[in-house]
Every structure is written in C-alpha cells, then in structure tokens.
Give the backbone structure.
Amino acid sequence: MIHAMKCHNTVSLCFLIALLSLVSYSEGKNIFCYFESWTVYRPGNGKYDVDNIDPNLCTHIAFTFIGLNYDGTISILDPWESNNDGLNGFGKFVALKEQNSNLKALVSIGGWNEGSQKYSELTANPSKRAIFVKSALQFLEEHEFDGLDFDWEYPARRDSSNAKDKENFILLLQELKTAFEPKGYLLSAAVTGAARYIDISYDVQELSKVLDYINVMSYDFHGSFDSYVGHHTPLYASHLDAEHDNLDWNIAAGIEGWIERGMDISKINLGIATYARTFTLEDPSNTSLYAAIRDGGIAGPYTRQAGILGYNEICELYSEWPRYWDDEQKVPHKVSGNQWIGYEDEFSISEKVTYALDKNLGGFMIWSFDTDDFLGLCGNGTYPLIKSVLRTVEKNGYSIG
Ligand SMILES: *[C@@H]1O[C@H](CO)[C@@H](O)[C@H](O)[C@H]1NC(C)=O
Ligand SMILES: *[C@@H]1O[C@H](CO)[C@@H](O)[C@H](O)[C@H]1NC(C)=O
C-alpha cells in the first residue's frame, strides 16, 4: 500500500520513498492460504487446529467453510468447532492478526460438499440475495473477519443447470461489493482452473471488476474419479494428452484461459496443492499416464480417504519410494507395487511459482495448510511446500504482500 506522506524536507528523498513504495506495491505477491476447519478431527500428527497456523507465512488466510441456508442466510456448518462455546475456531482465527498486523483473515463460503443448486437459487432471487448480503455483513462484523471468499462449485455445473447462474453470480457479487466497500471488506472467489469450463460459469470481465482476487483452483485435473492414471496438477500438457483430447487439461492452459478472457492478472492467485491424488493400478507393470486403474490409492492415516494423500503423509511414510519426474508436465510421482502417487514437492512448486511470476500474476493460493509438513517431521523444516513458494518469490526479486 502507498501510505500518505508528508514531504517537508528533501524533495528527492520523498520521491525516492514514493518510488520504493510504488515498486513494492506493484511487485508484492499475495499468498492466500486456506484453513480446512474439519482437520481438527484428524488423528495423531495429522490433527491440525487454528493454533498450528503460522501467521507469518501468508498475506491472507481463509477459514473454510461456512454454508448457506435455503432462506439466503449464512449457516455455520460446524458450530462446535467454530463458536466460542466450543473450540472457538473463528475467534482464534481472526486473533492470528495480533501476531501479524498485515494479515487479512477471510471466511470462505461454499466448497464442494455444499453443491451448486442452493447457490443457483440464491443468486436467481433478488430478495434472497438481499437477505444474503445482510447476513454476510452481519457475519463479518460479528466475527471480525476482513472479507468473504466465495467458493461456489460451480455456477451452471454439477447439480445446477441454470445457464443464467453466470450473470446472476455477478449480480450477487456486485451487491456484496456495494455493501462491503464502505466497511473495507475484501471480496474474493475460488474459481475453476480448467480452461474449458470458464465460459460456462463465469463472466470474466465483470468478475475482474467486482472481485479483489480470484483464487484459481489449479488442481484436481485427474483423480480416481477417472478410469486411468493422471497427475492432478500438471503445469503443462503431456504428449500423451493429444490422443485423449486433453491438451488444454492443465494448469497453464487454465491460467491462459483466464488471462485471454480479460481477467486482471494482478488479481489472479495461482492455486498450489499440498495434497496428492493417488491410484491403485490395474496392472502394476503399466505405470504410464492413462494406464488403467482399479481404484484410488490406499488411504493415508490422517486424510483417511482413498485416492488422496497429504504431502505430510507421503514424506513421513513413503520417502523411500522412488520418485519419477515428468519433464513435460513438470511434476513428480512415486510408484511402488500397484500404488501411483501424483504429488507436489518443493521442486515442482518452485516451477509453478516461476511460471506465475513470468506471467506477472498477483500471487498464489495454497490449498491447504494441513497437508504440508506443518510439524516439520520430514527434515526440511516446518511448511516446506509453502516456504518453497515464498523462497522462489523472493529469489526472483519479488516481495511478499
Ligand atoms: C499402458 O496403458 C496404456 C493405456 O491403456 C496403453 O496405451 C499402453 O500401451 C500400456 N503400456 C504397457 C507397457 O502395457
Ligand atoms: C530438502 O531441502 C534440500 C535443501 O534445500 C533439498 O536439496 C531437498 O531436495 C529437500 N528435500 C525434499 C524432500 O524436498
């Protein structure tokens, strides 16, 4: 931010200070980190609470998720975890700002489990929208958040087929912005990372005007929801993608899709996943991309879901498994027996950060704190993945924030 200055003395010194603050304003990168509140229920070293958050790693933190009632009001999905008669998640989350006065703490509404239909009905109905705007304002004031992050997955997709979702979403965001502006609240959204879905869900030019940031979900490109092996965070296409009509099914194509349609690049935060998507191979001797799978990979002890592993689980349990580097997609995977793990490490994250800096994007979004090696059990310190983002930003001469 450029601060108001009094320039009484040397004009040249004032000019220098103004110039320096301009430079840091234009080059300071956002690091927008998500907290998954349900991770407080994980066992052992996987348990992740607000107290585990390092408030100096990120410029923005977002608490996920709050939900939506059918009447248009906000619903607290886990009152025990969130409220001050329970674990006081909201209270402790915003209190992290006491340890970093530049930190912004947002709350995120939506997420995969909320579905799309409720949000479609909300945005299509002017009186429900008015109720929502009022409820959101009250919520931010009561819990002292700095803004709202909108995570509708996704307008005009999944359980909503209303083609008008796209324009109705803009109406709601404009009404929120009008209500938020006098209070200085931030407004952001998490959006698809897949080029081919942008036009279905978003009016990019209007989104670019109304939002402070978009957090591009540059992950989940493949997973055990497919019938074959694929890396979920490929930066670029593999030559094998051509015959499967998947040449646009990667992170760079998605980001370029947003840029081409007119999204303000300084508002784009590139999503970085700290978790892996995993597979059980049909035939352990075929470990290629597009090889047939039987199922997701074996669940980990913390994330406890077939087809998913945290980086912390991989580095604690599978550090001995051989690592393979896909130089086309710029991502590593591990294979052992019939298990195939497509993950991110310090090196692949640094490739993505370099890509985003070359594109002059505004910054990075991290999904999420809890699957990095937050305890530092694997020998490279705490939060090695998030720190790889920070290190690469700084190594390239940019500042944070
Ligand atoms: C592995 O599976 C892919 C996809 O079915 C196939 O194209 C490829 O020929 C297989 N490779 C081997 C070595 O069996
Ligand atoms: C840990 O850090 C060292 C030094 O930066 C690096 O060479 C190594 O690859 C890192 N280990 C992992 C698993 O990323």
User: Anything to note?
Assistant: The chain has a mean pLDDT of 94. The chain has twelve helices and 15 strands. The longest helix spans residues 126-143. The chain has one domain: 29-273+347-396.
